[in-house]
Structures are given as structure tokens and as C-alpha cells.
């Protein structure tokens, strides 16, 4: 089997899917937008900066900081390793919040 070209994204997707059973999971690799930053000089990884949109029942009854801690906890190994995740931007919603957002966007 060929080695994945996106092992970090693959690990993120697997861990989030297993733990949170999301109804929406969109992961965007924005590393190319940050490769010129001073902190990224000498880093050979092409998977350091991500945005993730996650909709899950697991977020019900939790405020945003608690939701983000849930995701950070899942990805702690990927964030700690050399050349791992340097930045992670999250949008976390419950299915009801996602539905409200879709309705709001449809009215605009």
C-alpha cells in the first residue's frame, strides 16, 4: 500500500471520527499559507496549519472552550510531535446549531 501524502490529516480525521462521530467534518490544510512565517523556517512538514469544521452531538451542552479542549485532547500527540500541528483553527457546532446557521444563510 502506498504511503499517504497527508498522514497528519489522516490521523486527525480518524481520531475525530472515532471519538466524536461527526455529522460534518471538513478539514482544510492551510500550511502553504504560513510556510514563509519565521516559526516555520526549516520545517519540512507540509501539514502544520489546519482549519476544521466539526458538527457533533458530542458538543451538546458544552461551551466553545470545552468543545475545543475535547478536540485538542484528541490531537495532543499530533500537536506535540516535531513537525506536527502548529496551529489549529476550530469551528465546533451541534447539529442544531449547524441547522440554524444554514437557515440564517438561506435568508441572506
TrEMBL record:
Choose any GO biological process term that the UniProt entry carries and state it: [4Fe-4S] cluster assembly
Q: Which InterPro entries match?
A: BolA, BolA-like_sf
- The superkingdom listed in its UniProt entry is Eukaryota
Where composition is biased (Basic and acidic residues), the residues are 93-108
> Which segments carry the region annotation Disordered?
85-108
Sorted alphabetically, which Gene3D superfamilies does this protein's record hold? Answer: BolA-like (3.30.300.90)
A Gene Ontology cellular component where this protein is annotated is: mitochondrial matrix
Which Pfam family, any one, appears in the UniProt record?
Answer: BolA
PANTHER family membership: BOLA-LIKE PROTEIN 1, PTHR46230
User: Which family would the database say this protein is a member of?
Assistant: Belongs to the BolA/IbaG family.
Q: What is this protein called?
A: Bola-like protein
- Tell me which species this is from: Delitschia confertaspora ATCC 74209
Amino acid at each position: 500500500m502506498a504511503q499517504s501524502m497527508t498522514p497528519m490529516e489522516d490521523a486527525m480525521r480518524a481520531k475525530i471520527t472515532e471519538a466524536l462521530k461527526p455529522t460534518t467534518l471538513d478539514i482544510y490544510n492551510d500550511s502553504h499559507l504560513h510556510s514563509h512565517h519565521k516559526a516555520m523556517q526549516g520545517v519540512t512538514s507540509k501539514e502544520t496549519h489546519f482549519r476544521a469544521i466539526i458538527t457533533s452531538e458530542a458538543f451538546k451542552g458544552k461551551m466553545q472552550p470545552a468543545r475545543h479542549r475535547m478536540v485538542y485532547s484528541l490531537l495532543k500527540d499530533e500537536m506535540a510531535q516535531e513537525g506536527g500541528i502548529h496551529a489549529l483553527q476550530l469551528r465546533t457546532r451541534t447539529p442544531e446549531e449547524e441547522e440554524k446557521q444554514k437557515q440564517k444563510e438561506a435568508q441572506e
